[in-house]
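Quick one, T. Sequence first:
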Amino acid sequence: MGKEIKKLMKKNNYELVRSNKHLVWKHKIFGGTITTSKTPSSRCALKEIQKNINHQLTHNDLYIAISPDLFPRAANPAEK
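Structure tokens:
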């Protein structure tokens, strides 16, 4: 199960911050963190982690909509 969690997190741009009894992942762009168990006992653990990722990324879309200055705009010839 641990390999699948690592693959899922890397696919979604999360990097491992620390590893004790739990794994703490931080998003490379937004900085949001997700904590997962090192050895999940549930068969639905990957599905629950994916749900947490989706929930966090949808809330970050709201943050981007509020703070557009975080990312440079593409050059638009109509604005010149």
